[in-house]
């Protein structure tokens, strides 16, 4: 991880995007100009983000962030990018919770202006735990913080999930129900199976991922539990912090209806993913931070709901992440940045920990 080239995140020309954005803004807000247009260093490989300022005598927002659907010609990470759905989700959460969700202003469903649908929201200042190099590595603000500061950030971040799950009426989030038959958990897993089939279409399949799906069936919870609105990508890397307090909750493209534990398992495992990689490269990481038992205990205290079937749900999180990692790897192959090895499972960065979970020996 320390030496491999970072996968390309975009095939778009930032200067061309800036020109087209300025033209679009002038129509939406006559007399306005988009200035300081830039792509953040943390731009992901899924939806893309542009940051800009609005120059206008009375702008509805001055500091803006634009969320742009992935270029469909650029070997996208997900098969569908539903920006209106994300926009509606953020409005729903802002209306029904006290979570710090950025104010969403404009939704543009026409792909003409920028080549894909997008929405514009307020830009919130603060700092984000880095993914590259991950916050578990030495040399970043979160790693350098005190134990007490990290404990505060941990508790506040778990509180985001607790309040989201408790405060949003499921009836208002019905548009986030996944298609298919059965309960919310069954539909969620079925959607992941479909995603996996899309990822490996015409490419080598992953025996490890398929064995993880089989283990899920063996460990299926007798009671899947209450259905709530799930953030979907519940991790601290999707939060902007003011000091150690959440200031903005971002990235709602994976939001769906599911049991509470789907979000909790993702929060547990996405930290473990970084922690395991860090230890594998010879650093200590943050072994006391975001531990599974502390996440479960804090969530139970905040909500009155004791998380259950968490071996199942952390395995499911690791499985879901493996499918994304496989798609990222095949995207690198597509752009000539990597080659397909004899064992496709080795393309999954966390294949060893996923295999241990399947075997029941990880925890």
Automatic annotation (TrEMBL):
Classification via Pfam families: APH
Gene3D superfamilies xrefs: 3.90.1200.10, Phosphorylase Kinase, domain 1
Database matches in InterPro entries: ACAD10_11_N (IPR041726), AGP_Transferase (IPR051678), Aminoglycoside_PTrfase (IPR002575), Kinase-like_dom_sf (IPR011009)
Residue ranges constituting the Aminoglycoside phosphotransferase domain according to the UniProt record: 82-276
Top-level division of the source organism's lineage: Bacteria
Alphabetized PANTHER family for the sequence: AMINOGLYCOSIDE PHOSPHOTRANSFERASE DOMAIN-CONTAINING PROTEIN-RELATED, AMINOGLYCOSIDE PHOSPHOTRANSFERASE-RELATED-RELATED
Name of this protein: Phosphotransferase family protein
Organism listed in the record: Streptomyces longisporoflavus
Highest classification ranks of the organism: Bacteria, Bacillati, Actinomycetota, Actinomycetes, Kitasatosporales
């Amino acid at each position: 991880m320390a030496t491999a080239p970072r996968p390309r995140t975009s095939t778009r020309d930032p200067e061309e995007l800036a020109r087209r954005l300025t033209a679009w803004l002038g129509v939406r807000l006559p007399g306005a100009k988009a200035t300081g247009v830039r792509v953040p260093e943390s731009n992901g490989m899924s939806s893309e983000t542009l940051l800009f300022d609005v120059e206008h005598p009375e702008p509805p927002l001055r500091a803006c962030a634009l969320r742009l659907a992935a270029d469909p010609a650029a070997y996208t990470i997900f098969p569908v990018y539903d920006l209106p759905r994300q926009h509606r989700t953020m409005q729903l959460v802002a209306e029904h919770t006290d979570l710090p969700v950025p104010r969403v202003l404009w939704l543009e469903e026409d792909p003409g202006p920028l080549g894909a649908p997008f929405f514009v929201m307020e830009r919130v200042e603060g700092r984000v735990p880095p993914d590259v190099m991950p916050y578990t590595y030495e040399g970043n603000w979160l790693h350098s913080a005190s134990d007490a500061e990290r404990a505060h950030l941990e508790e506040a971040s778990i509180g985001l999930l607790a309040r989201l799950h408790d405060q949003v009426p499921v009836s208002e989030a019905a548009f986030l129900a996944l298609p298919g038959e059965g309960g919310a958990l069954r539909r969620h897993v079925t959607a992941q199976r479909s995603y996996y089939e899309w990822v490996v279409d015409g490419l080598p399949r992953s025996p490890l991922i398929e064995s993880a799906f089989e283990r899920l069936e063996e460990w299926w919870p007798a009671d899947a539990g209450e259905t709530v609105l799930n953030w979907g990508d519940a991790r601290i890397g999707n939060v902007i912090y003011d000091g150690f307090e959440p200031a903005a909750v971002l990235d709602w493209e994976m939001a769906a209806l599911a049991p509470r534990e789907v979000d909790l398992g993702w929060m547990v495992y996405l930290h473990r993913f970084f922690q395991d990689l860090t230890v594998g490269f010879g650093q200590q990481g943050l072994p006391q931070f975001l531990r599974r038992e502390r996440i479960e205990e804090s969530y139970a205290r905040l909500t009155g709901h004791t998380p259950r079937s968490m071996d199942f749900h952390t395995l499911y999180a690791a499985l879901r992440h493996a499918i994304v990692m496989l798609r990222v790897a095949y995207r690198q192959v597509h752009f000539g940045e990597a080659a397909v090895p004899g064992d496709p499972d080795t393309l999954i960065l966390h294949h060893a920990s996923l295999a241990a979970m399947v075997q029941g020996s990880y925890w």
